[in-house]
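Worked Example 4.2. Read the sequence first, then its structure tokens.
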Amino acid sequence: MKWIADFRNLCLVALTGLLVSTQAVQAADTPASLSGGKVVSAVEAQKLQAAGAVVIDTRVAAEFGEEHIKGAISVPYREKSAKAANYNPAEDEFNLSKLPSGKSTAIVTYCNGPACWKSYKAADTAIKAGYTNVNWLRDGIPDWKAKGLPLE
């Protein structure tokens, strides 16, 4: 019967580790706000796009190639920095020259949802580069798809 107690204890240790891991993943979600920019829903992003906003997919090119928001442009954010609000942008790569030349042009950045930091960092980088109409689709392509909005 000792093996049953040992097995139960092993299961409890494994479950505790899983719960701690899950909490760590949830803690790594992106911030709920964007200093100097606006967090938008998929429906708001679509309205902005219809009014002329440039929608920027910050995911890797392969993900963009699989599917993306209709009319979006691919400007991958290559991150090596920490997935945290105090990340070091010098460790990352983002080609600002692919953004609109007019810094007052509305832009919308997106990636794979709240656990994906690329669109947050891209929006933050654009704001720090002087862009004044930055919108961040925090819930990303999953929210867009859930609303049945057009994809390519």
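Now turn to a second chain, presented in exactly the same format:
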Amino acid sequence: MQGVLRVAVYDTKPYDREYLSQAAGTKIQWDFHEFRLAAATASTAAGATAVCVFVNDKVDRACLERLKEAGVKLIALRCAGFNNVDLAAAKELGLNVIRVPSYSPHGVAEHAVALLLSLNRKIHRAYNRVREHNFSLTGLVGFDVYKKTVGIVGTGKIGKVAAQIFKGFEADVLAYDPHPDQVWGAERQIRYVGLKELLAQSDIISLHVPLTSDTHHLIRHETVPQLKKGVVIINTGRGKLIQTSSLIEGLSSGHIGGVALDVYEEEEGIFFEDHSDDIRRDDQLSHLLSFPNVLVTSHQAFLTREALGEIARVTVENLLNASDSVAYAEGTQLA
């Protein structure tokens, strides 16, 4: 593409603007929007060759049709997940979709482990206590990760890093993946098992699979009874991997011993925003937050300097190489 490329960017925060601007220099003209992209807002992309979207932008058929009418030719995701984009409709309309398949697996994996340690050792509760000069240790008992059985569901780049971190605790690490990497598992002394066996044996389960029709509600009413009693579940993947109602039932019965979430089933419209003065509430989320053995962060596992820099670098390279219909730098063409 010749000249300066104009790109409309949606659901942006200050850190998005900072890192994208640094990565592009003068090669891209950014139109930054704080609101999300959807059919109702797609007309704001008029004049742009491409749009850049994030996890909660709703790029369905209606949105894509309006983008095409506005002259948009390319949809660039500044994330790995693409379940919010109607790929079939994009292909039919002749709109290319590209993404950042990997940016900082270490950052996300480290956040998953940090969530577990904070929840297990009650760090968040202890922090609040001592700020009020309450130095009691009552109710702060945790457990050693050492020698526990940790189940890693999904051994892509993030899952592998998480598994290797847990091996550093000398935990017994099990793994499940529909396409197991047996060579890696043997090298790391990590044993691949079936999903049912993993659920039944694991003291800790960490979810690292993409959201697909097969993984939707991986943890649900039918699978909760299969879990080892007292299990702690960590989810830094996608919110809809877990059915929230079944999670609440498992916590209420005591079958699930604790939950640490960086994603939530109905996070769209909630996460990434300040709702502290909003009287409207998500009842299920409020119920989850009322449990003392639940810890929630708002989809921040990716939020490291390294990850933001890599997301911006690959996104910019994808956009600048968009005239090549075969390869998009280090990104992946989806449609």
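Notes for the reader: Confidence is low (pLDDT under 50) at residues 323-332. The domain at 5-103+304-333 is CATH 3.40.50.720 (Rossmann fold).
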